[in-house]
Amino acid sequence: MRTYRIAAIPGDGIGSEVISAGVEALAACAKRDGGFTFAFDHFDWGSERYKTTGAFMPDNGRDLIKSHDAILFGSAGAPDVPDHVTLWGLRLAICQPFDQYANVRPTRILPGIVSPLRNVSGPELDWVIVRENSEGEYAGVGGRVHRGLPEEVATDVSMFTRAGVARIMRFAFALARSRPRKFLTVVTKSNAQRHAMVMWDEIAAEVASEFPDVTWDKMLVDAMTMRMTLKPETLDTIVATNLHADILSDLAAALAGSLGIAPTANLNPERQFPSMFEPIHGSAFDITGKGIANPIGTFWSSVMMLEHLGEPSAAARLMRAIEKVTADKSLHTPDLGGKARTADVTKAVCDALAGDN
Ligand code: ATP
Ligand code: MG
């Protein structure tokens, strides 16, 4: 029987609560399936470690996890550590060297969940956002001079490479092709940003010719926010830069009902390195320790992990269990307006898995 080795990195805040829930659900999933098992290795990397040792993870951290089949990540960020320090110290310190260049964010309104959009309750909103995850606005290029002085100048340079744009575009067209509507929207800001964004548009057109069965259109990111809100049914697969997709996917998560539900996969599609699966939400210190964090975002990310590992029937079974649970309002956590606790939702998902034929 195949055993998948998973590196579990709970991180900060509610990270540990949702990751223990995820580990429990994945173990229940493997038990129900009977064809594979999981071996979880836990790593206590995060802001507490940074505050005592000056580093979020050990120097050999990446070596410790580079042979795992996948990484399950909670959340990184603490109120007393600047966000950019955490982001670069932990998340990007894993994503970038492991070349997880495709960040995939499915968005759907699950049964029982209410969208803030009037008249939208189900199939009208079914998207996958593909975020370029390795360069662009988050390339880390830039600097500051004359710090604190009136003449101070600071730059963040968006850096795009032809190879980087072409590979994410191919990934997005292939993903669009795998979905029933075979439709891709390419998002840029090529009216105002006249170098790199124009290159995006050109490369999109080139790659499109390799996918004649996929229809596609282009959108400026500002107009895209309107289209997502007013005409969600006109969208399916969406590809955008690191920054644009970061913003659009928070909007998407909110339109689908709650940040607590939204999943994401940081994929290294060539499988030279492990891919990383995590809920979109942050560490949520306002509810940490209260036992009310919504674990659905982590469960849905676990579905994506199972798909990536090549266990589609287990993935589908976990997704059915999630949908059965969200459909029951008595199992909604406070972020969804309910009173359920993390443990209630986790138990219900495990029970649904055990009872699924
Ligand atoms: P970070 O800087 O770590 O991204 P943040 O404060 O920007 O944190 P979140 O931690 O995602 O963002 O929290 C935003 C809001 O959503 C908070 O009020 C939080 O309680 C709520 N929230 C986020 N995730 C969940 C969850 N899984 N369950 C319930 N509420 C959540
Ligand atoms: Mg945040």
TrEMBL record:
Residues 5-349 form the Isopropylmalate dehydrogenase-like domain. Its EC number is 1.1.1.83, 1.1.1.93, 4.1.1.73. SUPFAM superfamilies: Isocitrate/Isopropylmalate dehydrogenase-like (SSF53659). Gene3D superfamilies: Isopropylmalate Dehydrogenase. Pathway: Carbohydrate acid metabolism; tartrate degradation; 2-hydroxy-3-oxosuccinate from meso-tartrate: step 1/1; Carbohydrate acid metabolism; tartrate degradation; 2-hydroxy-3-oxosuccinate from L-tartrate: step 1/1; Carbohydrate acid metabolism; tartrate degradation; D-glycerate from L-tartrate: step 1/1. The keyword Oxidoreductase applies. Its cofactor is Mg(2+); K(+); Mn(2+). Belongs to the isocitrate and isopropylmalate dehydrogenases family. PANTHER family: D-MALATE DEHYDROGENASE [DECARBOXYLATING]. This is D-malate dehydrogenase [decarboxylating]. It comes from Afipia massiliensis.
